[in-house]
Write a structure and sequence with these properties.
It contains seven helices and twelve strands. It has about 250 residues and is α+β, with helices and mostly antiparallel strands.
Length: about 250
């Protein structure tokens, strides 16, 4: 399918090469049954690469993939790692009783040095964002919850960072959550482009990744825990709730 979801009956290598002509970098990424940045490829399109990249090569990449122009991120996000698109992961909750959308937690995910992706399971780090002010915390964490004051050449304990236009980004997150009325809990991966505008890279609905908030010191559901528990228990389908004590 093309960018407007029209089915392409046939495409020759020359037609495919013509589509790639305006772009200097593209991303090839699986769209289903994948996580943690697995299978993501960033290709720099020199003139030779544009002729070498054929329709058959794309087909062999899998049945469910997307080919996109690589996003150029803002200077603010680039400073955390220039080789990956570093994303803001925002958790949202839409109350089934009031319809109000709440921001539960937020982090920046930062790719490892030289990495194409920012995922934690690819040696990246995450750092908490104060969900009200957009101010970054003073230490970051890896996928095992191990804290570090530094990432790359940044010492968060000695430097202060505030996300530009944080209110605009959280408003953007609420708009996305409102456009998916059947989903109450979402994890949104938002990039900031070169014009400092938020771009939705993907939303995660299967597996809420509560550990991301918990590792960085934020209750996963916070003040909404009781309401969510009440709603879940009232549903007719089978739900298993496991309570633990520490």
């Amino acid at each position: 399918m093309d960018a407007d979801y029209n089915i392409i009956g046939y495409m020759s290598d020359s037609q495919f090469s013509a589509l790639l002509e305006p772009y200097s970098r593209i991303v090839i990424k699986p769209t289903v049954n994948t996580s943690s940045g697995n299978g993501v490829r960033l290709i720099n399109l020199t003139d030779s690469h544009k002729t070498e990249l054929t329709v058959d090569i794309i087909r062999k990449s899998g049945r469910n993939i997307i080919v996109q122009e690589a996003l150029k991120q803002s200077d603010f996000m680039t400073q955390f790692n220039p080789t990956s698109v570093n994303t803001i992961r925002i958790a949202t909750y839409k109350s089934p009783y009031t319809g109000q959308i709440h921001i539960l937690s937020a982090v920046i995910r930062m790719g490892a040095s030289g990495a194409v992706v920012d995922n934690l399971h690819q040696d990246g780090h995450m750092i908490r964002i104060d969900e009200k002010t957009g101010v970054l915390a003073k230490e970051c964490y890896n996928a095992n919850g191990i804290a570090s004051k530094t990432h790359g050449n940044i010492d968060f304990s000695r430097q202060s960072f505030t996300i530009p236009d944080w209110d605009g980004i959280t408003d953007f997150a609420r708009i996305i959550a409102a456009s998916l009325p059947h989903l109450k809990l979402l994890q949104l991966d938002i990039a900031i482009d070169a014009d400092n505008k938020p771009r939705l890279l993907e939303f995660n609905a299967d597996g809420f990744s509560m550990w991301i908030a918990q590792f960085t010191g934020t209750p996963a559901l916070g003040e909404h825990t009781d309401e969510i528990r009440k709603y879940a228990l009232a549903q007719k389908h089978s739900i298993k709730i496991i309570q633990t004590r520490h």
